């Protein structure tokens, strides 16, 4: 009996030697408006052309309701996965986010990077704010010291500067509490303005 | 007058109205509403009742088939030249039978009367470590239904990954949107158009475009969508108030309206309307349906067999029905019945039955197309 190899024939038909099937994103859409089709092609073919099969779509930009939309033909993905096609990293990431595959380690790496950037931003803003505050307090201290110096010269030598120093510490403490409130505002503004995913 | 209509529009609507009651209301201006909108009872589950064969056949018989009206109601995009053909009698019968069958198949696609669907939300996984990556919610739909044989909307998988990193099944609104993106239905918009806002609806209803609006609603929403229920309820109440049942007779919405009215115990106006138009066979069927819906056994109780349509059974049924009515209505109904008896019941019944037999004969004719 001749074995029925017809079902394997399609895998043997290769357009060029060393061709491998790959599941990846093909970028369609327009300038500044990407739209990806998730697609099975041979690995050396141009990114957008000569696809073997379309498995889904991915719209990275949020729609009117603020969602990114993903559609995938899970049956066919399963089929291709069984037969050993390569999946590129972004496709695997998406599948992990969706829950069909486990979460890709690169998403965790990305998450860490983003949190680190956020913290750095916050640090920078804090430092800036503190610098500004220090300048202001320095100015205030200088003014007060000039005034108090004049007073001392005019009146007598034994005058304590304690009440003025207490006032200065109190203002610094209140400044610290106000700092966080004011910082949160500026942080949110900076986040919105930033192009990166911070 | 309280109408917002211009003079010409007023005359147009006046001519379109099929009932003296509605004409009077239009003239008076419907300001002070003594009309109590009907309330749907919550203890009866309407859907299994609605889908029974007996109920469906009764609704089919009540709506009948009116080819002229449906031809008028069709939206015409281009002015078509009329096609004239000389045709032998047999061929003519065949063509008529084709059109009847088409009509009947359209009427049988009536929107079922269901309860509002329930909200589902189920958490599948929690991954707060991904949260920084998710700037927006990710709406995922499984498009593998294209390659599968089963196509029910309820089986389609729609899942959302939140900005906090929780994976959950989507809410009903998200599901609708996602299914419309991936499996679009022709005529449906993803975000509901301003056609269904109350002011615009009211505008359309004032011009007596009931079946037009109902068709649009059927296209946009599924029958168990709460918006669908709200809008259809509004329209049916509007029709009830004006007693304009004839506007829907012959369309596929008549059956659902009749079912809705008998559920809410407001079938009296419809019965009166039928008696006025001398559709006695329809009255008997409708009262049987009403008794069935409100019998103690509910959906398990079987529909009483269609006894012969004659004077005796008519009087029997009307007697049984009028036990439930009280006061003014009873007197009105009794008057109607008396006038009908004087006019000659058996002849009217014969006419109605002959009409029904005509329709049946056309439907049973063998044709190539349908």
TrEMBL record, chain A:
GO terms classed as biological process:
mitochondrial translation
What keyword terms does UniProt attach to this protein?
Mitochondrion, Ribonucleoprotein, Ribosomal protein
Q: Which domain of life is it from?
A: Eukaryota
Which Pfam families does this chain map to? Ribosomal_S16 (PF00886)
The keyword Repeat belongs to this UniProt entry's keyword annotation: no
Has the keyword Ribonucleoprotein been applied to this entry? yes
Which family is annotated? Answer: Belongs to the bacterial ribosomal protein bS16 family.
- Protein name, per record: Small ribosomal subunit protein bS16m
Biological source species: Magallana gigas (Pacific oyster)
């Amino acid at each position: 009996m001749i074995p029925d190899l017809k079902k394997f024939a399609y895998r043997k038909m290769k357009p060029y030697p060393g061709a491998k099937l790959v599941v990846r994103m093909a970028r369609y859409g327009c300038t500044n408006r990407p739209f990806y089709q998730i697609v099975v092609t041979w690995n050396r073919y141009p990114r957008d052309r000569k696809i073997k099969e379309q498995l889904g779509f991915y719209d990275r930009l949020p729609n009117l309701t603020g969602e990114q939309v993903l559609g995938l033909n899970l049956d066919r993905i399963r089929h291709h996965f069984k037969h050993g096609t390569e999946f590129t990293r972004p496709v695997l990431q998406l599948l992990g986010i969706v829950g069909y595959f486990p979460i890709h380690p690169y998403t965790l790496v990305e998450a860490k990077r983003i949190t680190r950037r956020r913290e750095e931003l916050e640090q920078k803003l804090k430092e800036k704010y503190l610098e500004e505050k220090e300048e202001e307090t320095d100015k205030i201290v200088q003014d007060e010291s000039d005034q108090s110096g004049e007073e001392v010269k005019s009146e007598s030598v034994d005058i304590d500067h304690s009440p003025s120093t207490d006032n200065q510490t109190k203002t610094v403490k209140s400044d610290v509490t106000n700092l966080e409130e004011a910082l949160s505002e500026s942080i949110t503004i900076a986040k919105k303005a930033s192009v990166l995913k911070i | 007058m309280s109408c917002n209509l211009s003079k010409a529009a007023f005359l147009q609507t006046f001519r379109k109205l099929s009932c003296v009651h509605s004409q009077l209301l239009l003239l008076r201006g419907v300001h002070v509403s003594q009309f109590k909108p009907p309330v749907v009872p919550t203890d009866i589950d309407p859907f299994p009742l609605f889908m029974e064969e007996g109920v469906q056949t009764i609704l089919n018989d009540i709506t009948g088939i009116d080819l002229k009206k449906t031809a008028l109601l069709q939206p015409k995009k281009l002015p078509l030249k009329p096609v004239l053909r000389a045709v032998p009698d047999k061929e003519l019968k065949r063509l008529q039978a084709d059109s009847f069958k088409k009509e009947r198949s359209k009427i049988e696609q009536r929107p079922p009367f269901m309860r509002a669907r329930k909200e589902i939300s189920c958490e599948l996984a929690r991954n707060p470590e991904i949260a920084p990556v998710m700037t927006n919610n990710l709406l995922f739909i499984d498009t593998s239904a294209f390659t599968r044989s089963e196509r029910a909307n309820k089986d389609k998988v729609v899942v959302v990954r939140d900005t906090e990193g929780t994976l959950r099944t989507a809410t009903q609104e998200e599901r609708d949107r996602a299914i419309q993106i991936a499996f679009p239905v022709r005529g449906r918009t993803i975000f509901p158009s301003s056609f269904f806002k109350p002011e615009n609806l009211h505008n359309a209803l004032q011009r007596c475009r009931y079946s037009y609006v109902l068709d649009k609603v059927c296209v946009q929403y599924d029958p168990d969508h709460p918006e669908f229920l709200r809008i259809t309820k509004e329209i049916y109440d509007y029709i009830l108030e004006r007693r304009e049942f004839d506007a829907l007779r012959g369309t596929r919405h008549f059956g659902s309206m009749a079912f809705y009215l008998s559920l809410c115990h407001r079938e009296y106006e419809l019965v009166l309307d039928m008696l006025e138009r001398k559709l006695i066979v329809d009255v008997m069927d409708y009262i049987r349906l009403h008794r069935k819906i409100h019998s103690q056994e509910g959906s398990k109780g079987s529909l009483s067999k269609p006894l012969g349509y004659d004077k005796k059974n008519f009087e029997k049924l009307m007697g049984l029905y009028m036990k439930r009515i009280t006061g003014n209505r009873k007197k009105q109904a009794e008057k109607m019945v008396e006038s009908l008896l004087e006019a000659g019941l058996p002849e009217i019944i014969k006419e109605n039955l002959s009409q029904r037999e005509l329709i049946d004969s056309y439907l049973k004719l063998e044709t190539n197309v349908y």
